[in-house]
Each structure stands twice: as structure tokens, then as C-alpha cells.
């Protein structure tokens, strides 16, 4: 009765559509879970995310869960995760998307899931890495070990907003590093980020991992 009263005064809202959640729903309503615009990239060997890396860096496979557009429910979902700190958004989407990735042969036999790391200054400012919670959901649903410590960001790059493709690449070149004693060396890695636009940040991360004979696959929550 107390919970019902609190929900009446402070209703729990869906993080995507802002409608009141039903009693059995959590974080994202069932309607949004079923109708958010999925890409099905993981079933397409020539999907736009993978093709964006062609001629730039070798990637085993790359895919995004949702299509991103401005003023959309997907943008609202990402905003709740990144700026409102609703970490369960990332985990929920990761849990769902992990089950879909398991249907694709190319996403089998992965050794570790790792999020694209934030620099320590950004971590101190924001308090968390939004990509880590998406990675946690993926690792949990795919039964793969999560590693958030061995791959680090050594330089605090400037924001990528409104930069050209070349400027984005130049801004993130050589900003990542692998710990000297890392268990990731020579392994098959699922590299995770929240949104992919030009792929410059992911490309820089992949190039660093490739120095240590890693095979890299990519998964993001959304693609612009």
C-alpha cells in the first residue's frame, strides 16, 4: 500500500517515453521495449557500422542495437543514462541486446567485454562511465567476463560535438593504452560504447588493441 501511495505521488516513468510504468515494469516500459527502432545490424555482414570501419581498421564485426535520431525515444533513453545517471538503462539494454547477439555466429567465442574507457578527469566529473553499464548487461546476458580495468584512457580529449570526421579522428588519436600486464593481450574482445557516429573514438581504441594481437568486435547502444 505504501508503494502504491508513493507511486501515486511520485510516479515511476519510462526512461524512453516518459509514460507511467505499470507495476510489473521497470525502467523501460514494455511498449518501448518492443517498439524502439532496432537495427538488426548483428544479422547483416554489411551493416553501416561495420562498413564505417572498412579501409580504416580491421574489425571482426560491429553492430548497434538502436537507430538514433534527434528528439526520439532513443535519444531520451541515452540522455537518461548519460546525463541523468540512470545506470539501469544501460544494463537493461545490454541484457536485451546480449540475447540478440548470441543469435549471431560472429559474436560467439568472445573472451572479454570491455567498455570504451573515460579519462580519470571525466570519471571524477561524471562519477561513472555510461558505456560500462551497457557492457555489464552484455557480459551478464552473454556469460562473458567483463574487464573494466586493463584498457585505459591516458589523455582527456576534447568533446567531439560539431567536429568533422578528420577532426574527430585527430582528437582521439593515441589516447588509449593497455596495461603492461593485461590479460586482454591476444584475446577476442567485445568493445562497447554508447553511441557511434563517425567511429573515430572506437577506431582509436581498436588500433591500440590491435597492437597486442587482439581480435575486436564492436557493439553500441545506438548509431546515428
Description:
This protein is of the alpha/beta class and 224 residues long. The protein folds into two domains: 1-35, no CATH class; 36-223, Rossmann fold (3-Layer(aba) Sandwich). The protein is built from nine helices and seven strands; from the N terminus they run H-H-H-E-H-H-E-H-H-E-E-H-E-E-H-E. It has helices at residues 2-9, 30-35, 48-51, 73-82, 87-101, 120-126, 130-142, 165-172, 200-210, and strands at residues 61-67, 112-115, 145-146, 151-153, 176-178, 188-196, 215-223. The strands form two sheets. A five-stranded parallel sheet has the order 1-7-6-2-3. Strands 4-5 form a two-stranded antiparallel sheet. Strand 6 (188-196), helix 9 (200-210) and strand 7 form a beta-alpha-beta unit. Helix 8 crosses helix 9.
- CATH class wording of the largest domain: Alpha Beta
Number of strand segments = 7
**Sheet having the most strands:** 5 strands, parallel
Summarize the helix and strand pattern as letters. Answer: HHHEHHEHHEEHEEHE
Give unreliable regions as ranges: none
* CATH architectural category of the largest domain: 3-Layer(aba) Sandwich
What do we call the CATH topology of the largest domain? Rossmann fold
Kindly state the percentage of residues in helix. Answer: 25-40%
Computed over alpha carbons, the radius of gyration is 18 Å
Tertiary shape: globular
Instruction: Note the total helix count.
Output: 9
- For the terminal residues, how far apart are their CA atoms? 43 Å
Question: What's the average pLDDT?
Answer: 92
The domain tally reads 2
The computed structural class is alpha/beta
Strand order of the largest sheet: 1-7-6-2-3
Report the β-strand fraction as a percent range.
Answer: 15-25%
